[in-house]
Amino acid sequence: MKTSEFDYDLPPELIAQTPVEPRDSSRLMAVDRSTGELIHRRFRDLPQFLRPGDLLIYNESRVIPARIFARKPTGGRVEILLLRPRSEEVWEVLVRGRRVGAGLRLEVLDGPGGEPVGARAEVLEAGERGWRLLAFDRPALVLAEAVGQTPLPPYIHQPLRDPERYQTVYARTPGSAAAPTAGLHFTPDLLMRLRDMGVRSAFVTLHVGLDTFQPVSEDRVEDHRMHSEVCRLTPEVAAQINQAKLEGHRVIAVGTTAVRVLEAAASRASGGGADAEVCPWRAVAAFEGETDLFIYPGFRFRAVDGMITNFHLPRSTLLMLVAAFCGKDLLDRAYAEAIRLRYRFYSFGDAMLIL
User: Is the pTM of the predicted complex or chain greater than 0.85?
Assistant: First the structure.
């Protein structure tokens, strides 16, 4: 399958630069996989498409202020983006700056043009495309909370007035370098309305890395390799999902990250993981660890019956996942319609509900 099949032309003015207020006033395109019908609403109208007993699965990961600035002994400035921990002090990071090799010691600054704060980091390993392994002299998350900035995707050029606007209202577990953006549309009031009508909720965790959003560079989709991301699905949530399936209710993932957790858990339940718990009626198995699951057309979904998602970048793994779920032809038609009707795209953009 050619990566170029997942390219499309998007007018730059449709890339959302700021979030709408309130959150649930964003537009919503509902996509019916069985009929191909496209319905246009506002996100606050989501309850119209759900029914009692539906189980919504949210990713509760919280974006950390992962963007840290530092200075080399020569005085040159570098930018550090925290990606994932090896321990409290040792992190895999992306570094923007020249000649940042193994053994180099960095002074952490209080901002892009700031002064040293007394913290230091040493480069333990240097890899390709800016990847580094850094050892900080104190817990990196504590340091980031003190001096770090919330990272925004490179296609967003306007500063964010309130960093909480790049968090979901239910974000609880710090660890992501980017927001699980499908959840940005929910408000506390909408969550209450869904609960009151009998729609159930459960929470999983997947700490989002930047690889999720990067365009696929290989010519063939099958040649792309995902970086692994840390995730968790507890026994209690696994029981909720399995019970919903037994009762014939729909399991609807809020975002592609939730999809990947659920389908990784389904793979373990069906014998596809080293710690699999095979059982003929079990849809998912609880697990905590890493997943590098790459979902593209041809994938067989075992756990997910519906999906809420945003409109994604061309050639991205996210776009390929959505195409796998609803079909490439229907996806192309939905995106063409979204562009024609001037929907807003990407992280702060509008949403799709695919059932």
Answer: yes
Mean pLDDT of the chain: 93
| Domain extent at residue 328 | 3-63+163-354
Backbone region of residue 3 per phi and psi (left: phi > 0; alpha: psi in -120 to 50; beta: other values): alpha
Closest CA to 10 of 316, 328, 313: 313
Which CATH number do you get for residue 132? 2.40.10.240
The string of DSSP codes covering 115-148 is -EEEEEEEEEEE-STTEEEEEESS-HHHHHHHH-
CB atoms within 10 A of CB 1: 15
User: Helix axis angle, 317-326 relative to 328-340, nearest 10°?
Assistant: 110
271 has a pLDDT exceeding 60: yes
Confidence of residue 275 (pLDDT cuts 50, 70, 90): very low
Q: What is the pLDDT of residue 45?
A: 98
Do 345 and 322 reside in the same domain of the chain?
Answer: yes
